[in-house]
Amino acid sequence: DVQLVESGGGSVQAGGSLRLSCAISGRSNENYFLAWFRQPPGKEREGVAAMYTGFGGGNIYYDDSVKGRFTISQDNSKNTLYLQLNSLKTEDTAMYYCTKSDDGVVNWGQGTQVTVS
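User: That's the sequence. What structure does it adopt?
Assistant: Structure tokens below.
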């Protein structure tokens, strides 16, 4: 079974930075989608950043609200997905989730909380 475990969340002041990690284990095809979502308090879950490993990589998407501040990346040797969060704003406060979509099967992590004050 595929498992995703997030870490790296915490409390930070506005303007600060955090790096979220998502350790991924289990079976995997060669090409798949990876993404970060977040769910602010009292709001629906929303997409933040995504990437597709096929076509040589480099297929990356960012929501306009985080473009230029967040960076999604993958370390294949460590089977880990990252989300670097810079210039954090109070509106970035949310539970952050990583997800993997592989051959039609979508798996989610349990989430890691980011609080910006």
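The longest strand covers residues 94-102.
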